[in-house]
């Protein structure tokens, strides 16, 4: 029997080559005459932040810029960006970059409107109402953060990645221009691309999945599965760039409504303790968790295999191990490390990481039930 579900997509999504130039039009729609642009130092260094500034200023809208966003952004960065927003007298935020600037923008959108500290809103549905209007422009394909209801911020005092989950966080507009992802280095394209695939994958196997999230997840896996390898091979391949960016967005919508699973629950502590890039941490955990969850499979593993496999002939006798092997092959093809030990993770932190992983709501959505002992064993296996 189909269980109850609800969904809406409460934002305008604009997709198209060269669509960055439509940013002033969206700012006009949001009623803003002064915006804070939140981005990162790399995009500033290569001149992309300046390009956005020029487009906006040419339309007569004032711009202030905050580009001190690091990977796995911290509570301190959120506080600094909130201060910059208030000082500027801004009335909207443009988040430009990967998941990190978007996480910060969402957090600033909450604090600028309702005050306090971001930790006050940790957990689900603590944001009391609409936040500052945000226009999200991804430059990676990617986190899907432009369409999700989550902000993940590192609390360095606790070595903990706190999550704020509220549908109020979904940006008012998502502007997806494939030209912006065509400058990614191969390593970034690989890590972000696998992250997007895992978003769709975990949403698809989630215990909270619905026909709506399934439709989004399946389309995401179709687009990403067929294009991830060739996009990493050549980011200038326009068709692959467009497929990856749209696939990442569909994956984001899928997990905004279906949650994720053990991969994400376990990757956040890896990033918090060892500063491993989020996409890399997810990717390394993928084969171990896929193997663990096989016991709960009810036909979905074969569908995922068909989306991501290099073999295009129909499978006659599928077994779940084929998907585990395919996941390992994918990481090898993309040049992503195979083990947690390869990225500096040490065994002495496993019990602490497992305790933090168990606090994640994603554990409850994972298809196979997990105890803290299970999580400890999975970390050890992924070492």
Overall description:
It is a single chain. With 383 residues, the chain is an alpha/beta fold. The protein folds into two domains: 170 residues, Rossmann fold; 197 residues, Dehydroquinate synthase-like - alpha domain (Dehydroquinate synthase-like, alpha domain). Helices cover 50% and strands 11% of the residues. It is built from 15 helices and nine strands. The strands form two sheets. A six-stranded parallel sheet has the order 1-9-6-4-2-3, sandwiched between helices. A three-stranded mixed sheet has the order 5-8-7. It is globular. The N and C termini lie far apart (40 Å). InterPro entries: ADH_Fe/GldA (IPR001670), ADH_Fe_C (IPR056798), ADH_Fe_CS (IPR018211), Alcohol_dehydrogenase_Fe (IPR039697). Belongs to the iron-containing alcohol dehydrogenase family.
Topology diagram in text:
Elements: E1 12-15, H1 23-29, E2 34-38, H2 41-45, H3 48-57, E3 62-66, H4 75-88, E4 92-97, H5 99-114, E5 123-124, E6 134-138, E7 150-155, E8 160-165, E9 173-176, H6 186-205, H7 211-233, H8 238-258, H9 262-274, H10 278-293, H11 300-308, H12 320-334, H13 350-357, H14 362-365, H15 372-382
Parallel strand pairs: 1-9, 2-3, 2-4, 4-6, 5-8, 6-9
Antiparallel strand pairs: 7-8
Helix pairs in contact: 4-5, 6-7, 6-8, 6-10, 7-8, 9-10, 9-13, 10-12, 10-15, 11-12, 13-15
């Amino acid at each position: 029997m189909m269980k109850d579900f609800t969904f809406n997509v409460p934002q305008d999504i604009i997709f198209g080559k060269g669509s960055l130039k439509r940013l002033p039009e969206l700012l006009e729609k949001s009623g803003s005459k002064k915006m804070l642009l939140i981005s990162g130092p790399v995009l500033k260094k290569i001149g992309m932040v300046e390009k956005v500034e020029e487009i906006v200023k040419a339309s007569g809208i004032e711009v202030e810029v905050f580009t001190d966003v690091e990977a796995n952004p911290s509570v301190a960065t959120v506080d600094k960006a909130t201060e910059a927003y208030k000082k500027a007298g801004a009335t909207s935020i443009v988040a430009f970059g990967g998941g990190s600037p978007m996480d910060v923008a969402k957090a600033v959108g909450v604090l600028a409107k309702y005050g306090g500290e971001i930790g006050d809103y940790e957990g689900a549905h603590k944001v009391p109402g609409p936040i500052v209007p945000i226009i999200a422009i991804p430059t990676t394909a990617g986190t899907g953060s432009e369409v999700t209801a989550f902000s993940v911020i590192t609390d360095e005092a606790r070595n903990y990645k706190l999550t704020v989950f509220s549908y109020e966080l979904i940006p008012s507009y998502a502007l997806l221009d494939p030209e912006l992802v065509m400058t990614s280095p191969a390593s970034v394209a690989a890590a972000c691309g696998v992250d997007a695939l895992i978003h769709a994958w975990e949403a698809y196997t989630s215990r909270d999945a619905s026909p709506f999230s399934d439709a989004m997840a399946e389309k995401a896996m179709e687009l990403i599965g067929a294009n991830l390898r060739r996009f990493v091979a050549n980011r200038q391949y326009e068709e692959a760039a467009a497929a990856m960016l749209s696939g990442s967005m569909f994956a984001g919508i899928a997990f905004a409504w279906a949650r994720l699973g053990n991969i994400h629950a376990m990757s956040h502590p890896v990033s918090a303790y060892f500063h491993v890039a989020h996409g890399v941490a997810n990717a390394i955990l993928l084969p171990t968790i896929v193997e663990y969850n096989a016991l709960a499979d009810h036909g979905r593993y074969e569908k995922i295999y068909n989306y991501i496999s290099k073999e295009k002939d129909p499978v006659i006798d599928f077994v779940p191990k084929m998907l585990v092997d395919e996941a390992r092959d994918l990481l090898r093809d993309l040049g992503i490390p195979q083990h947690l030990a390869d990225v500096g993770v040490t065994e002495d932190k496993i019990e602490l990481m497992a305790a933090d992983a168990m606090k994640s709501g994603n554990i409850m959505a994972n298809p196979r039930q997990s105890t803290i002992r299970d999580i400890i064993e999975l970390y050890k296996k992924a070492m």
